[in-house]
Amino acid sequence: MSAQARIAAEVESWPGVDSGPGRFGSLRFTVGRRELGHLHGDGIADLPLRPEAARDLIAAGQAREHRYTPEGSGWVTVELRSDDDADRVVELMRGSYERAIEKRPELVR
After folding, report:
1. pLDDT tens per residue across span 52-70
2. Distance of alpha carbon 57 from the chain centroid
3. Is residue 92 situated within a structural domain?
4. Would the pTM of this model clear 0.85, i.e. be above it?
5. 75, 55 in Cβ contact below 8 A?
């Protein structure tokens, strides 16, 4: 199964998550109005994270700054080179999902 298919199957199974086309041919995942991230095929995932989480991933070499957002915005790009990378993207999206529904539980009703 491709990285995009693996990630999509998991994230789309969460209550309240919608997916659909994003910019530049991406596959976008949202809960309510909050974007959890988007995938550009099987190559990369772009994710909005808390700035401190983004800094930690970048420092660990697991992500890079998103090239079209301001430095320090929290947006990162993760290259999908392995199953571990895909699993990491799912974990990161799950963290964003949990924070979103904690603030707005009505999103999953």
Report:
1. 999 999 999 999 888 776 6
2. 13
3. yes
4. yes
5. no
For the chain, residues with pLDDT lower than 70 are 69-70, 109
Q: Are 80 and 86 in contact (CB under 8 A)?
A: yes
Count: domains in the chain: 1
Looking at the domain assignment, is residue 58 inside a domain? Answer: no
3-state SS of the chain?
Answer: CCHHHHHHHHHCCCCCEEEEECHHHCEEEEECCEEEEEEECCCEEEEECCHHHHHHHHHCCCCEECCCCCCCCCEEEEECCCHHHHHHHHHHHHHHHHHHHHHCHHHHC
- The verdict on residue 43 lying in a domain is yes
- Determine the Cα–Cα distance for residues 7 and 91; give it in Å rounded to an integer: 10
Residue pair 81/88 in contact (Cβ under 8 Å)? The answer is no
The single residue listed with the structure tokens 């915005």 is 73
- Asked if the structure places residue 101 within a domain, the reply is yes
